[in-house]
Amino acid sequence: MAKAYLEANEVERMEQKAAYLRDKLLIRLLFRLGCRISEALGLSVDDIDFNRGLVTIEHLKVRLRLLCPECGTRLSKKARFCLGCGAEVAEAIAREKEHRRVRSLPLDDDTLKMLRDYIKRGGAISKNGRKLLFGINRHGPGQYRRHAAQHENWNAAGAANARLIYAHH
Asked: Which domains does the chain have, with CATH numbers?
C-alpha cells in the first residue's frame, strides 16, 4: 500500500523547489499546521496574530444537524419552511450556519518571518472585503503537489492523494 503522507525532508524538498514565495508559504503552512487546503486558502491577514505567534483557522467542513425548533423535523440547509409543521425556519438555520468552530495554532518564528515578508511584498489579495493570503482556488496547489511529487519520483498515486502532516512532538 502506498503511503498517504509526506516525511519532513520530503516536504522541505518541495518547499525548496517551489518557484514562488506564495507556494513555499502554502506548503509550509499546510505541513506545519496540519490544516486542509481549503482552510489554508481561506486564511486572511486578520487571522494571524503576529504578537502572539498564532493563526486562527475556521473549520470549513461543518456537519449541521438542523431540526425544526417547533416540531423537531429534520431540515435541509436551504429550507425556509418546515415540511413537518409548516413553521418558518430560515432564521433558525441562519443561526446554526453562523456557529462554526475555530482553532488557534502556534506558528514558529521562521514561518512568521516568511508571512511578514510575503505580506510586505504585496502577496495578500483583497477579495470580498477580506485580505486573503492566497488568491488561488484549491486546484492549483494540488497540481503543484503532483508535479513536485512526480519530479521527485514518488509514487504517483500516493503523491496525488498525499497529505502534508506535521507531527507535534
From this structure: 1-56+104-169 (1.10.443.10), 63-99 (no CATH)
